[in-house]
Design a protein that fits this description.
Layout lengths: L1 H14 L8 H13 L6 H44 L6 H17 L5 H21 L4 H24 L6 H17 L5 H54 L8 H20 L5 H65 L4 H28 L4 H28 L1
């Protein structure tokens, strides 16, 4: 998991070297993928790189805003001059023709303006240049030459828009179409009798692309709704599993937790195969999913910590018990050795008491060995020692019995 997160951090660092205003979708995708994984030591590094991206984006955005404002001021000044020329006297049109062309050339060199001004400036630009060229009636040949050039350029734009209909990448086609519209707005007018037909041709090609673009996003939004439903279904199953495991009457054992873990891992694998939900739900749905996963793994951890503590306590008690049994056996062994030495000096009555005592010790030892065999897998050596002790006691018992028989 750390390897994957480190790779995402490196990808985010690489994006900092690109146009930060153009990589937002990629950054959002990396951010989502990063927080799908469990938290680890890489999270602080990721946050630092993300903060650097946000700061750089804010700086670039501020610079872009200043540039947009400067462009707006320059274009507004050009529009003011164009308006003066378009509303001037017909007698001075020819003298102003080059000035108008200079203004048009300067206009094309200026970059973008704020979005709210685009349509307003575009309409004003078209209006003033059309009004001006309408005034240039004293030199129809020159006007016709400009019209012809503009007609050729706009016809090429119509053909380019029509070719875009064959582009399977509708997002790319839509962006290209917007560029064509920008170029259209920069080109001067055509002959009045051709304007409507030419615009309708361009507009019809644009409409086809726009409809495909809208259909694409409708389909995308429908898929996002399906993804949202699939993710909610996984969360519901996680909630049900957590409720089942943590119910008051529930007593899940190791096997139950292992089976539940396999289910949760399957849910996580399925989650990773599901695409994005609608943007406004993406973070909240992920937070809810993450909370359910965390709840499960925290409960599992608590169970196994408790289990290890109980096992450790039982092992300690068993160890202490085995030590007590071993000590008792060692005492019994010592007593048996002393008893064996004293057998020869015992009277008939003493031998019978010794026989009874040995029989009782054998029964006790045999009961103990049965207990160890049934309850403990770690007491093999002690069992062997006890079996040897039983055998020794039986030999002593046999000696005592033989001596009793001899006495009789």
């Amino acid at each position: 998991m750390s390897s994957t997160r480190q790779q995402l951090i490196e990808e985010l660092k690489a994006l900092l070297e690109q146009d930060v205003l153009a990589v937002k979708d990629q950054v959002d995708h990396i951010k989502t993928q990063f927080y799908k994984e469990e938290s680890d030591e890489l999270e602080e590094e990721f946050k630092a790189v993300l903060a650097e991206y946000k700061a750089k984006r804010a700086e670039v955005a501020a610079q872009a805003a200043q540039e947009l404002d400067a462009n707006m001021q320059r274009k507004q000044a050009i529009l003011d001059e164009m308006k003066t020329l378009a509303e001037g006297e017909t007698d001075g049109v020819m003298a102003n023709l080059q000035h108008m062309r200079d203004l048009q050339a300067e206009w094309k060199k200026i970059g973008a303006v704020p979005a709210e001004k685009v349509q307003e400036f575009r309409k004003a630009y078209q209006k003033y240049q059309e009004q001006f060229y309408d005034l240039v009636k004293i030199n129809i040949e020159l006007r016709d030459l400009d019209f012809k050039k503009n007609l050729e350029l706009k016809t090429l734009l119509c053909e380019a828009a029509e070719r875009l209909q064959n582009n399977d990448n509708i997002v790319e086609a839509s962006r290209a179409l917007q560029q064509l519209h920008d170029e259209w707005a920069e080109i001067g007018p055509v002959a009045r009798e051709l304007r409507e037909d030419l615009w309708n041709r361009f507009k019809e090609a644009s409409t086809i692309i726009n409809k495909k673009h809208q259909a694409h996003f409708d389909e995308l939004h429908a898929k996002e709704q399906e993804n949202l439903a699939a993710k909610r279904a996984i969360i519901d199953q996680l909630k049900a599993l957590n409720a089942e495991l943590q119910a008051e009457e529930a007593r899940p054992d190791v096997k139950a937790w292992e089976e539940a873990t396999l289910k949760v891992q399957a849910f996580q694998n399925e989650w990773r195969t599901i695409g994005f939900a609608p943007k406004k739900y993406n973070q909240t749905i992920y937070d809810e999913y993450r909370a359910e996963c965390d709840q499960f793994f925290q409960a599992k951890k608590a169970f196994f910590v408790s289990l290890r503590e109980r096992r450790k306590e039982r092992e300690q008690k068993h160890k202490e018990y085995l030590e007590r049994v071993k000590a008792r056996e060692e005492r019994q062994r010592a007593q048996a050795e002393q008893m064996a030495k004293a057998v020869a000096n015992q009277s008939a009555e003493g031998l019978r008491r010794l026989r009874d005592r040995l029989q009782q010790e054998i029964r006790t030892a045999e009961n103990n060995i049965l207990f160890f065999t049934a309850r403990s897998k770690t007491a093999n050596k002690l069992v062997d020692d006890m079996q040897k002790k039983i055998n020794d006691l039986k030999k002593q018992l046999e000696q005592v019995k033989n001596q009793i028989n001899n006495e009789d």
